[in-house]
Amino acid sequence: MEIGTLLRKLRDKKHLSTRTVAEKTGVGLSTYLSWEHDKSSPSLINYIKLAEAFDIGPVEFMSFLTGKTVNVTSARETEIEELKETVHNLRRYTVLLGDEKEIIKDELKKMMELIKQIQNSPQKAF
């Protein structure tokens, strides 16, 4: 699949307009459209800016463009999943902690609140 097709696919998945991606990337609309229509290719620095515009890491973005992965998650989704995994592991091993059990329970409550705050906060704008 061509890079332009993949950019369009990702843009559609993220529900972004061509104008929004161009603005977030810091290029003109015609420049972005030329990338999406495979008339030209972004520079390396613009690939990094595109990853930021789509709210994904640059490595994950390049993996997607090269066909190494089809599942592109945002940095926010990754952060939430990591926090959830930490909470799960702490709950699982709390029985082994003895006297520190109450401290861990308090930390778990704080982490669950953090997860809720992240999920309920508006997406950051680039």
Portion in beta strands = under 5%
Distance between the termini: 28 Å
| CATH topology group of the largest domain | 434 Repressor (Amino-terminal Domain)
Tally of alpha and pi helices: 7
Instruction: Give the overall pLDDT as a whole number.
Output: 80
Report the radius of gyration as a whole number of Å.
19 Å
- CATH architecture field of the largest domain: Orthogonal Bundle
- Indicate the percent of residues in helices: 55-70%
Global outline: elongated
Category from helices, strands and their pairing: mainly alpha
Q: Care to count the β-strands?
A: 0
Could you describe the 3D structure shown?
The protein is mainly alpha-helical and 126 residues long. It has seven helices and no strands. Helix 4 packs across helix 5. The longest helix has 20 residues, at 101-120. It starts with a helix and ends in a 6-residue tail after the last helix. The mean pLDDT is 80.
Quick tags:
2 domains, 126 residues, elongated, mainly alpha, 67% helix
Short description:
With 126 residues, the protein is mostly helical.
List the helices and strands and how they pair.
Layout: H1 3-13, H2 18-25, H3 29-36, H4 44-53, H5 58-65, H6 75-93, H7 101-120
Helix pairs in contact: 2-3, 2-4, 4-5, 6-7
